[in-house]
């Protein structure tokens, strides 16, 4: 089979005459291995971040993240020599969809622990 994963991205901006609209149309990706992780993990404020539990997912994939906290932001990133390096910030209630370039993502909360809802569909 092909195109087992499908998704659409859309954004609209209207601010003091600044207007923009974006729609990706329908996008798709092939999934060679029928694996995914769906989890809600409590993320703390540890300086080095904490590894996201990936279960049986061992390859890169399409990831969806949602910050379930209503006060604090959470950052998603990677660990390099025990130092956390963020590549994504989710404000309270925000979501993001992206293609991971790592099989070992990390996360770190702002000032208090947050619940992070995430899914990774291995490709």
As for the CATH topology, it is Jelly Rolls
Which architecture does the CATH hierarchy give at level 2?
Sandwich
Strand order of the largest sheet: 5-12-7-10
Q: Can you count the beta strands?
A: 12
Number of domains: 1
Q: By helix and strand content, what is the structural category? A: mainly beta
Number of helices: 0
Strand content: over 45%
Report the C-alpha radius of gyration, rounded.
Answer: 16 Å
Largest sheet: 4 strands, antiparallel
- The end-to-end span amounts to 13 Å
CATH class: Mainly Beta
Overall body shape? flat
Low-pLDDT residue intervals, each spanning 5 or more residues = none
Measured as a percent range, the helix fraction is under 10%
Describe the structure.
The protein is mostly beta strands and 123 residues long. The chain has a single domain, classed as Jelly Rolls (Sandwich), CATH 2.60.120. It is 0% helix and 55% strand. The protein has strands at 5-7, 10-15, 18-23, 27-29, 36-43, 50-51, 61-67, 74-80, 83-90, 95-99, 106-109, 114-122. Strands 5-12-7-10 form a 4-stranded antiparallel sheet, with no helix packed on it. β8 (74-80) and β9 (83-90) form a beta hairpin. The chain starts with a strand and ends with a strand.
């Amino acid at each position: 089979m092909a195109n087992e994963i499908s998704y659409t991205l859309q954004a609209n901006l209207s601010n003091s005459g600044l207007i923009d609209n974006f729609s990706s149309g329908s996008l798709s990706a092939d999934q060679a291995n029928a694996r995914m992780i769906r989890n809600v993990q409590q993320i703390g404020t540890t300086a080095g971040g904490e590894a996201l539990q990936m279960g049986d997912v061992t390859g890169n994939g399409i990831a969806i993240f949602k910050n379930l906290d209503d006060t604090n932001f959470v950052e998603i990133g990677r660990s390099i020599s025990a130092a956390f390096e963020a590549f994504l910030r989710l404000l309270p209630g925000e979501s993001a969809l992206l293609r991971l370039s790592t099989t070992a993502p990390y996360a770190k909360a702002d000032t208090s622990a947050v619940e992070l809802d995430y899914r990774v569909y291995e490709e």
